[in-house]
């Protein structure tokens, strides 16, 4: 049985849950940087990467799951840059609030959930800049 699970969408919050709590960690800064895409095949869902995107490409070390093959590291360039947060950080008790309508402000629980998040990010070979983007210590 797992102690916690890690989930999210590229460039958005990174989330962890232990079944009772859900912690959604948003970027530390308004520009949501640094943020890179790592790929063997430079395509988005409906089109290839643009020439502008490909000009930022560089080869990066392999991840544990790429079986020793290096990957392209391409600047994602996300963020609004207007000083407003792109995504916020939230903590919910889904046992007491299954619809996630009442965020918690509990530093002890948040610290526990950050511990799960960092441990799982390490276990899943998260890129080092993700810790910086999220304001976490690796």
What is this structure's SSE topology?
Elements: E1 5-8, E2 14-17, E3 21-25, E4 36-39, H1 51-54, E5 58-60, E6 71-75, E7 90-93, H2 107-123, H3 128-134
Antiparallel strand pairs: 1-2, 2-3, 3-7, 4-6, 5-6
Describe the structure.
The chain has two domains: 1-35 and 81-138, Arylsulfatase, C-terminal domain; 37-75, no CATH class. The protein starts with a strand and ends with a helix. The protein has 138 residues and is an alpha+beta fold. The longest helix has 17 residues, at 107-123. Helices cover 20% and strands 21% of the residues. It contains three helices and seven strands.
How many distinct helices? 3
Judging by the overall fold, what is the CATH architecture of the largest domain?
Answer: 2-Layer Sandwich
Number of strands: 7
Based on secondary structure, the structural category is alpha+beta
| Total separate domains | 2
**Fraction of residues in helix:** 10-25%
Q: What is the CATH domain class of the largest domain?
A: Alpha Beta
Query: How would you describe the oligomerization state of the chains in this entry?
Result: single chain
Radius of gyration: 16 Å
**H and E string:** EEEEHEEEHH
Q: Report the average pLDDT across residues.
A: 93
Report low-confidence residues grouped into runs of 5 or more. none
Label the overall shape: elongated
Labels describing this entry:
four-stranded antiparallel beta sheet, three-stranded antiparallel beta sheet, 138 residues, 2 domains, alpha+beta, Arylsulfatase, C-terminal domain, 7 strands
């Amino acid at each position: 049985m797992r102690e916690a699970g890690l989930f999210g969408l590229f460039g958005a919050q990174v989330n962890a849950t232990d079944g009772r709590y859900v912690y959604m960690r948003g970027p530390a800064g308004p520009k949501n940087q640094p943020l890179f895409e790592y790929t063997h095949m430079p395509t988005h869902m409906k089109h290839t990467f643009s020439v502008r995107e490909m000009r930022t490409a560089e080869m990066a070390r392999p991840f544990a799951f790429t079986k020793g093959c290096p990957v392209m590291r391409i600047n994602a360039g996300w963020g609004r840059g207007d000083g407003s947060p792109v995504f916020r950080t939230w903590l919910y008790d889904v046992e007491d609030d299954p619809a996630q309508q009442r965020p918690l402000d509990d530093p002890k629980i948040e610290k526990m959930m950050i511990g799960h998040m960092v441990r799982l990010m390490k276990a899943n070979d998260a890129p080092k800049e993700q810790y910086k983007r999220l304001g976490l210590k690796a």
